[in-house]
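Handout, section 3.2

Students often ask what a structure token actually looks like in practice. Rather than define it abstractly, here is a full record for Glycoside hydrolase family 19 catalytic domain-containing protein. The first block is the sequence as you would receive it.
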Amino acid sequence: MSTPRFLKRAGVAVAALVATTGALVLPATTSSAQPSTSDASFVVSEAQFNQIFPGRNSFYTYSGLTAALDAYPGFANTGDDTVKRQEAAAFLANVNHETGGLVHIVEQNQANYPHYCDAGQPYGCPAGQAAYYGRGPIQLSWNFNYKAAGDDLGIDLLGNPYLVEQDAAVAWKTGLWYWNTQNGPGTMTPHDAMVNGRGFGETIRSINGSIECNGGNPAQVQSRIDKYTQITGILGVPAGDNLSC
């Protein structure tokens, strides 16, 4: 029987990669040296952030986002100014979609909570069977994803996944972890898609794959595109090519 490899969602669509062996496997990870960044250099101002998310949950602070930037200094800081702003817009458009406009901090369907623990992993589920539900701006879920993100960030998220819903900077860091290091059901990280000119559509593929792309759910794809074009307008850059997947 096939088993989902990567599931994450705030009660919306679920991205799934299937391992025919029945074993859960982490998504591919990529890394590369990138230039450094700082809070002051982020291409989205606080005023623009508030304009993009007028109804956001107060948990998702601008200061939390800027505090998370040092974890992945290449994010929105690679290439020319247009590429930097397009990448920031692409990330924010996708997290907008994942969280209902930065409203949801945790997955809304609590019936799913016990499902996100692969007890067969050698490290098990130390925080409990139902502790690894979706949280944060890209709705991190499953014990193996909490471990991978925590290992990369130097935070014990396997032992204390609740940090993602308690600390805004940690929540943003998990979103940036996925964006910058995980291919998901796609063929590249969303970061690589934007900095290498593959376009916004490829970021959707890396987050939700065929559940939305290739005709899977064109309305959801269009919703992401609409927000992306709105944000690029606010940031004063063209949206670029290849918006759909």
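Discussion prompt for tutorial groups: The longest strand covers residues 3-4. How would you have guessed this from the sequence alone?
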